[in-house]
Amino acid sequence: MIDSLLSNENKRFRDEVRRFANREIAPNVKTWEKEGKYPDSYYKKISEMGFMGLLVPEEYGGEGGSMIDLAILCEEMGRVGVSIPLTHVSACCRSIAHLGNEDQKKKYLPDMASGKKIGAYCQTEANAGSDAGNMSSFAEEKETHYLLNGEKIFISNAKIASVLIVLAKTKIVPEKPSKGIAMFIVDSDTPGVSIGRSEKMMGRNCSSLDEIIFKDVQVPKENLLIPAGGKGFKEIMKEFNSERCGNSSFCVGFAQGAYERTLKHCKERVQFGKPIAQFQGISWNLAEMAIKIQQSRLLVYDALFKEKKGKMIAKEASMAKKAANEMAVWVCDQAIQLHGAYGYSTDYEVERYYRDVRGWSMGGGTTQVCLNRIAYELLK
User: Could you tell me the pTM of the whole model?
Assistant: First the structure.
């Protein structure tokens, strides 16, 4: 069904990504997880493929791709059990491309598109996860710069990023705290920027989540991306739709990968004289897995095709994320169950798929936040 919606160019891109993922990525995933990081060669390869600059306009050295291309990329990479630096591709590059002025675009986008510089999106704080308005990071306006102080946690790419997209308050608005939030571009080598503690997570072991500390960091005024007040915070939040769709596509990909491995196992595993896939209890479970994956995939593309037509997709992106997150956890759990004791073994990949997808339901808005957004859009 999805094939009928995709252009020939989309299909060629999907085939290209799938060949690359199967050839260059899949054979190395176990090794990378044991080492606890993606090697430099991984970033080099995905940069050479154009993935890092997928959403960067061609005039700034990128691929000029669409959100549909991003969904294809995320699903195909998730299918072999890895992620790309999603916050770099969507939240960082897309924020500068959509919200930045010409000088900002020329200064940052070419190096980010080539992979020479990697971005990190700095929003979450200890007391400001889903409630962005509760953040305490503050950028005090001076004559020639802003003086930034604060601490951000659970930041992807923190240790390798050269460009930081930072949300911080520039004024206090008691009646509407989010109105005081502005967005800045901060070079990670600016004095006062440092890496704090690293989080030890149950999954996604190839990429770390770290604390970034800003202590009296001088941010040039020309690096203000979006000022506080007006429609600033709404513009910032629009970029979350792209991350939620990317997140959802990763979940679809991880679930598809776990399902394919489970289907193969059930066809090959013989018990009581026949492959276990021939038992009704098993075959129905496999059918449910396939249905749920396709349902979530369709929700993602429903959001993306509406976005392509210029429509607001806050509701659709939240629906896709909520559904895909829950679907992926369920499918990967069933994959472990249908593998039996083998599914619990690290020799088989499905346990890693489960650990990795469990984390996606927190990033980019929890299930509860997505439900709140859906309800708001339905009732307004």
Answer: 0.91
Rounded distance between C-alpha atoms, residue 90 and residue 14, angstroms: 18
Structure tokens at 319: 């629906």
Among 209, 210, 215, CA closest to 193: 215
Last residue of a domain, one of 114, 142, 177: 114
109-163: pLDDT as tens digits: 999 999 999 999 999 998 887 778 789 999 999 999 999 999 999 998 999 999 9
Do 79 and 65 fall into the same domain?
Answer: yes
**Dihedral over alpha carbons 323, 328, 334, 339 (to 10 degrees):** 160
Select from 58, 84, 114 the last residue of a domain.
114
Q: Are 70 and 10 in contact (CB under 8 A)?
A: no
- Pairing of the two strands 119-122 and 163-169: parallel
Q: Do residues 245 and 364 both lie within one domain? A: yes
d(CA 165, CA 124): 12
Q: Give the domain extent around 72.
A: 2-114
**One domain for residues 59 and 101:** yes
> Does 180 share its domain with 260?
no
H or E segment and range at residue 156: strand 145-156
Low-confidence spans in the chain with pLDDT less than 50? none
CA distance 43 to 38: 8
Q: Count structural domains, the chain.
A: 3
Six token digits for residue 71: 């969904």
Residue with tokens 């590059």: 93
Measured between alpha carbons, how far is 160 from 298 in angstroms, rounded to an integer? 34
For position 217, which CATH number holds? 2.40.110.10
